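Aggregate trends can hide what the representation actually does to any particular protein. The sequence in question and its structure tokens are set out directly beneath this paragraph.
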Amino acid sequence: MSDKKKINPLLKTGLELGPIVVFFVAYLKLREETFLIGGTDYAGFIVVTAGFIPLMILSTGILWKLTGHLSKMQVATLVLVVVFGGLSVWLNDDRFFKMKPTMIYLLFGGALGIGLIRGQSYLKFVMEEMMPLKEEGWMLLTKRLTAFFIGLAVLNEIIWRTQSTDTWVYFKTFGLTAAVFAFFMTQGGLLQKFALEEEKD
């Protein structure tokens, strides 16, 4: 197994968010277009999705090459992008790709929930190095994040089933990202309350 390597944070962020930004820009340019490929008409959304899949694979591969490590979350996200994006392109049906965030958040929320049932915080195993907390803090944060992920899954289902594709793309690109950022910003009190004090000599 490769050792983790440090890379420029801006480069790391670019590799993680770059494909999403490219998807958004490409969708804005091609959303009104229809492409005849192999005798079948494909909407711009499907064509952009087809381009997003290899771009996501490439960016994740570069990230792995540079860092020597991928988190379980990154691997799971890539797999779901390939599976649900591939189904959308293969069946020429955008609903599968729109369901992807639902599956991602249900997967993460379900995994954390299973840990809670077993009396464990799986979140601690993933983020302990970044946020050293007391056990009580990890359990509380995990409960909140589990509920948050389930809520995002439900919200994504409501948005894509009741709103236009334009609305869903804006929601996926900006709404979900802002929601995750806002969640962790609002946990400052918990992080301070349960933070482990550094041992002093």
